[in-house]
Design a protein that fits this description.
Layout (H helix, E strand, L loop, with lengths): L21 E3 L8 E3 L7 H9 L8 H4 L3 H33 L14 H41 L9 E2 L20 E8 L8 H18 L9 E3 L5 E3 L17 E6 L10 H16 L3 E9 H4 L7 H7 L10
Helix pairs in contact: 3-4
């Protein structure tokens, strides 16, 4: 994994570079550390956490991922904070009266006792503030949620075409040195999964691929990302070492193989149809370009290495694809 001196976001696996972008779960048994933008909180909610020190944040694993439940919890935090503030004001007022018994606090309402009128006004103000804040949060959350849905609808490839992003296009770094060439055409394709979170947009899939490259290069000391290609849940293919360079994906079988990794974990869930289609289109393109031999063999990563990859659900699927082989 990444250097132990650095903190990594438990959601996106990226390095947390600055303290202001860091949020830690308040549950002592959890203590997950995330980027601010990975918490799922809105800008208004993050601002409240920064300005009101009595408020704390709990991750979706401790609190529950339901949006309504999160808003209800925030409401309780705000109400509790306001009540504590009111109690502190009452204590200060009582101390002031003890210090100067001859001084009488001005009446807030001439028709009610002073303590009752003060409480009534405090409760009214707190209620108005709380209602306004919740209205803003609900409106903002609904707007952002709608934008996210729309973005996902227009940020996937579902038309049966092969869309491939070069390393520079997904924000990757070039290899440190010249990589060893593959002997073409290649006779073996090995399917794996990244065993991390999946993705359903170009932005998120690019980020996941960058994290994989950082892990391979910074932690394992490789010259480049290990896979020849990665396939995102958005239906795009993310180029790694490409067709003509030896990969670093399956020890003992890298030479003479093309390693294709599905972004995500598929031990219990099935990949999206667009993700499966993108991989099939990539393989067909390899045959068309004569990078893959027409009689190539298809394997799951687990057949050649002691691993659960590519996950049980994905492994069941590729066994039904053409060219799958159980002979090593």
């Amino acid at each position: 994994m990444l250097d132990s001196a650095l903190e990594c976001c438990q959601k996106c696996r990226g390095v947390i570079a600055t303290i202001p972008s860091r949020i830690e779960c308040d549950n002592g048994l959890c203590s997950r550390v995330l980027h601010s933008q990975c918490t799922g909180l809105t800008k208004e909610q993050l601002k409240l956490l920064e300005t009101i020190h009595n408020l704390s944040w709990k991750c979706d694993g401790c609190l529950g991922s339901n949006q309504n439940q999160s808003l209800l919890q925030l409401s309780k935090w705000l109400e509790q904070s306001l009540r504590q503030h009111e109690k502190r004001l009452e204590v200060l007022e009582q101390r002031s009266k003890l210090d100067d018994p001859g001084q009488q606090a001005p009446m807030l309402c001439p028709y009610l006792p002073n303590t009752i009128s003060r409480k009534a006004i405090s409760i009214t103000v707190a209620f108005v503030l709380l209602t306004t804040l919740l209205g803003i949060i609900l409106a903002t959350t609904t707007n952002l949620f709608g934008k996210t849905l729309n973005k996902t609808d227009f940020d996937v490839i579902d038309n049966g075409t092969l869309v491939m992003l070069k390393v520079a296009e997904w924000g990757g770094k070039p290899p440190k040195t010249t990589l060893d060439p593959l002997e073409l055409p290649v006779h073996r394709v090995i399917i794996s999964h990244t065993a991390a979170e999946g993705c359903e947009s170009r932005e998120i899939c690019s980020n996941r691929t960058q994290v994989v490259q950082s892990f391979h290069v910074d932690s394992w000391g490789w010259d480049h990302i290990g896979y020849n290609f990665l396939v995102g849940g958005d239906g795009r293919v993310y180029e790694g070492r490409g067709w003509d360079r030896v990969g670093a994906h399956t020890k003992g079988y890298n030479k003479g193989s093309i390693g294709i990794s599905f972004i995500g974990t598929f031990t219990a869930i099935r990949p999206a149809e667009r993700q499966l289609k993108a991989c099939q289109l990539l393989i067909s393109e390899g045959v068309r370009l004569k990078m893959l031999a027409p009689d190539f063999r298809l394997y799951g990563h687990r057949q050649l290495s002691a691993t659960e990859s590519p996950g049980e659900e994905l492994y069941k699927i590729i066994q039904k694809w053409p060219h799958w082989s159980h002979d090593i």
